[in-house]
């Protein structure tokens, strides 16, 4: 599997689309057909439901998703390291 296939599948998941099989898997003769599984049932906590209703948060998340899809989302390594250290410190 090529890296491009993985990236496109990941981006499809971020956009809420179903991932498509890779060209290699689809073109392989004699390969078994993929088994479709029913979607898993997800139960959201009250906090998650409350966050989902927050319009400002939803707009920020949508903006980040857009930037990720365009490849223009950048954050500094220093910010990431600081956040990790703060989480580990408790």
Task: Give a short summary of the structure.
The protein is built from five helices and no strands.
Strand tally? 0
- Terminal-residue CA separation: 39 Å
**Largest sheet, if any?**
none
User: Which shape, going by the Cα principal axes?
Assistant: extended
Helix content: 55-70%
Overall average pLDDT: 78
Whole-number radius of gyration?
18 Å
Count of DSSP helices? Answer: 5
Structural class: mainly alpha
- SSE succession: HHHHH
Beta fraction of the residues?
under 5%
Give unreliable regions as ranges.
Answer: none
In words, what does this structure look like?
The protein is mainly alpha-helical. It has a domain of 47 residues. It is 59% helix and 0% strand. It contains five helices and no strands. The model has no long low-confidence stretch (mean pLDDT 78).
Keywords for this entry:
90 residues, mainly alpha, 5 helices
Give the helix/strand layout.
Layout: H1 3-14, H2 23-27, H3 46-52, H4 55-70, H5 77-89
């Amino acid at each position: 599997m090529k890296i491009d296939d993985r990236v496109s599948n990941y981006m499809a998941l971020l956009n809420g689309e179903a991932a498509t099989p890779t060209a290699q898997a689809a073109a392989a003769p004699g390969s078994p057909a993929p088994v479709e599984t029913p979607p898993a049932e997800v139960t959201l906590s009250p906090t998650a439901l409350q966050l989902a209703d927050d319009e400002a948060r939803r707009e920020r998340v949508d903006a980040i998703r857009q930037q990720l899809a365009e490849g223009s989302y950048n954050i500094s390594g220093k910010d990431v390291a600081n956040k990790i250290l703060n989480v580990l410190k408790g």
